[in-house]
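ERR on first pass: missing label on line 2. Operator R.T. fixed the label and resubmitted. Corrected input:
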Amino acid sequence: MKKEKQKLSRTQLKKLKMKRKVIIWGVIVSFVLIMSFMAPFFLPQDPLETNALMMRKPPSFEHPLGTDNLGRDVFSRLLAGARTSIFATIMLVIFSFIVGTTIGVVCGYYGGFLDDIVMRFTDILLSVPQLVLAIAVAGMLGGSLVNTLIAIGITSWTSYARLARSHAMRIRQLPFINACRLTGTSDATIIMSHVVPNLVGPMLVNATLEIGSTMLNIAGLSFLGLGVAPPTPEWGAMVSESRNYLQLAPWAVFSPAIAILVTVMLFNYFGESVCDLTNTKEA
Amino acid sequence: MLKYSLKRIVKLIPVLIAITLIVFTLMYLTPGDPALQKLTSQGGEVTPELLSEVRHEMGLDRPFIIRYSSWVLNVLQGDLGNAYTDDQPVVPKLMKALGYTASLAIACTLFSVIIAVPLGVYTAIKKDSLFDNIIRIFTFTGNAMPNFLIALLLMFLFCIKIRAFPVIATASLKGMFLPTLALSIPMISRFARQTRADVMSQLSEEYVIGMHARGVKERVILFRNVLHNSAGSIITIVSLQIRVLIGGSVVTEMIFRWPGIGNLMMNSITARDFPVVQGAVLILATLQILVNLLTDLSYFLIDKRISLE
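pass 2 clean. output:
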């Protein structure tokens, strides 16, 4: 009896610790998000202003992260670019989440022929190297942020669709859904008020886990010059622009690259803490 | 085994058809007139007569389905058309580049597995030790690193600071070192994490406890049973990572100017030489499908029970 009590409190303690972790990372991530949206209003210098006298200057008091090959302040560009990089990532994750979940739920709930076709299609998309397809699409459409998002979006919804489908198939067979059907509730109502609320939790956890890799994909494409048009500050594009001056101005290359690394790590830590917490809840 | 393989290969046919369709449609939907692009990329004056002549020559005035089927027939005969820029056949160019990409991919996969699997096993045994924690920080960081950051860091350290390597990778064993390392670091991170997780879950299985109780040596349990049982999921993650590797190789090849398919593809995108891009996507996608097939077949070799399904 006593032993059992101890064991219970230990798992509770573990859960509390996990909850605390989620809250800490959640606060940090929301802080980064808010900062990235507010940053363009607090820029120390104009991120687009070039200065021929200040080209490739190392970090100093005036320019905390130095200047790039056109004499622009790297720190200001980094702050201004945060919104583009993070906003694009979040948009793409939300888009894939909505499209993937909708398709997955419909396929999982109805099953049958439609389901077969869509699942075959996701199989095919999953068997093509994602980034290569995205590069080809973005390259052929021409580089712009929207085209980059389209190029990655073509394949990114598939993993959400598969996950949503498997959840919808499981939920469909639960007794309370049958009860709903017996009372004559329409399919649309069942899906919206019973199936979706029951799978949105695990889907959101998956989405938080995907933020990091989505950001890396976008950064990869914009590094290849397929993202935003040059003067606009964006992290991947900043690395790409300064890459030829690696020897003369390494700060201009590594500052945005490290900004990507740190942001991705934050999102990954947050995603993992959420995942840990929900797993213990189920167990 | 033969029956299973045949079944798998037959299943590939619709996938291959779909891929040719995707690749072809991509080209079809591309904004701009291919005939005009071909003429402008070759230089010289473009007259309306010349344009319509080239359009007819390229079959652009025919309907989609006919163009697609004649393209597929050509592909089956190993003809991917001619490049816009120099009017030379695409296939030899792609094959030459494929050799470079494949050697990089093989070197990188081997290197990563050799480093990561022992690392994963060791950190699983010494869970929560100092070494485990240090490796965990490394793998977590490696996982979140954009691949251009790794490549540029290596280039900065080895080519600019130490000057041990030339900045432009020559197509030699020495030149291969840095691109391989750059591609391997994120792979090692993911493999090591996966291996550690698998071995740890195996170690808590009852058969391991039973073997311990019977006094079987730790080493025997680990190498004969645990590793064998985790092999399936390690192979899965390796094959999944090859997809990431193929994508990542584009960035790395471009940075080190390694003359592989990724580099060729980027140069062709810049030159708007789409037959080459089309061919590159087709070849990389086929490569990925072959890897998927080999993965499925290797599950069979590890665990004979799979064929019963």
